[in-house]
Structures are given as C-alpha cells and as structure tokens.
Recover the amino acids of this structure.
C-alpha cells in the first residue's frame, strides 16, 4: 500500500505570494490533518479534514486554509506569505472516524522557504 | 491546553546500550499516545500507538509504556544501534488533534 504523498517536496517563495501544497492520503483513509513544524514552535496542528469538511482547526490565522476533495486528497493554501511561514508542512492521514482515535500516518513533508 | 514535555532534549549513547526516553503531559484526558521517529528533514514514522486503556505496547526492540494518571509515557529502546539515531517525538491525542512534544534527539555512537 502506498504511503502518504506530498507535493511538492521543496518550495521557495517570496513574501506576499501565495502557495498551495498537496497531500494524497493512504488509500482508504478519509481523514487528513495538516501540521506546521518549525524549530521554534515545534509541531503545531493546522486543521483536519474528513469527508470534504473541515472538522477541526488549530490556532492559525485565516491566511492558512485548506480543502479536501471527494477522493480524500487535500490541499493547503497559504496566502500573503510571511517570512515566519517558512517551515516543514506535514500532512497525516488516518483510516476512519475521528483522527483522535486512530493512528496517524505522516507524509514526507513539504519544505517551504519564504524569502 | 495540553502541554507535552520530553526529557532529555538530546541524548548520546554508545552502541549497544539500553535507553529510556521520557514524555509527560499535563491533561490526562487523552485518547491515545503515539511515539514517532523523525530523521533530519524528513516526515514522521509511527513507532508505537498506545490506546488510553492500554499500559504498554511492544514492537521489536521498542517498548512504550503509558501511565495516564501520572501523565507519563516512556519509550524503552533495547540494544541501541547507530541506525536508531533520530529525533523521537511523542504525541498525545485529545478530542480534536495531536499535541506534540518537542522531541528528544538521540545519537547512538558506533
């Protein structure tokens, strides 16, 4: 079974631009969660999607948004990029139901650098 | 808000040693606890998942324990190998998401 895939793996943008990251979950997994990892803040939860609906949201500004498609693939968008958005963005999928109850499987991440 | 702490932040051991990594959390109302491994610049690899009703889980040379009442978990690695060098993260599952610790960076010296 293929694992969680994320594209692109690396991205360089400049301040003010916007970016879209993509995540394909493990086949059959319906829940996709996104996390931001930085050296200063560690791993922080962004949001979770389940059956095309955002179910949970972390404490991030509205510049961070996402969506999920009918095939469970998810995209994350960051608008008006700031230097502090430079981070490793990880997505995780879990089988069914509430992600809290199920093991999460992580992708390799997208390394975003904002110049 | 759930706070997850991992001690020590970094650890160096000679190959072959047994070692213990610690994880503590402030809110005992968790659904499960997961231990992950992260290699530099890479994603997270799930090592062990302990449901809140369980006390421990084992996988090969790894053993994780959970004491919900005291808010603690330990990851025991037996007979460490250089390939075990990585950052180890614990995460506790609340109602809405995972709360991660800051990790322990392990170096196993050949």
């Amino acid at each position: 079974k293929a694992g969680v895939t994320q594209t692109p793996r690396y991205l360089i943008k400049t301040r003010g631009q916007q970016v879209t990251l993509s995540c394909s979950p493990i086949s059959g997994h319906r829940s996709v969660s996104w996390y931001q990892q930085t050296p200063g803040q560690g791993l922080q939860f962004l949001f979770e999607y389940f059956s095309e609906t955002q179910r949970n949201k972390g404490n991030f500004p509205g510049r961070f948004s996402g969506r999920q498609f009918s095939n469970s693939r998810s995209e994350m968008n960051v608008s008006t990029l700031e230097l502090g958005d430079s981070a490793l963005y990880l997505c995780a999928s879990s089988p069914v139901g509430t992600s809290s109850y199920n093991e999460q499987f992580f992708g390799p991440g997208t390394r975003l650098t904002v110049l | 808000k759930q706070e997850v702490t991992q001690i020590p932040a970094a650890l160096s051991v000679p190959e072959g040693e047994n070692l213990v990594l610690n994880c503590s959390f402030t809110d005992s109302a968790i659904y499960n606890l997961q231990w992950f491994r992260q290699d530099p610049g890479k994603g997270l690899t799930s090592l062990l998942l302990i449901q809140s009703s369980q006390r421990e889980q084992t996988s090969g040379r790894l053993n994780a324990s959970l004491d919900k009442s005291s808010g603690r978990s330990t990851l025991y690695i037996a007979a460490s190998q250089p390939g075990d060098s990585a950052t180890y993260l614990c995460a506790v599952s609340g109602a809405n998401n995972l709360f991660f610790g800051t990790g322990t960076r392990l170096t196993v010296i050949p």
In short: The interface with chain B takes residues 4, 6, 33, 35, 42-45, 48, 56, 58, 88, 90, 92, 99-101, 103-109, 111 of chain A (CB under 8 Å). The CA atoms of residues 11 and 112 of chain A lie 5 Å apart. The two ends of chain A are 37 Å apart (CA to CA). Chain A is about 0% helix and 50% strand.
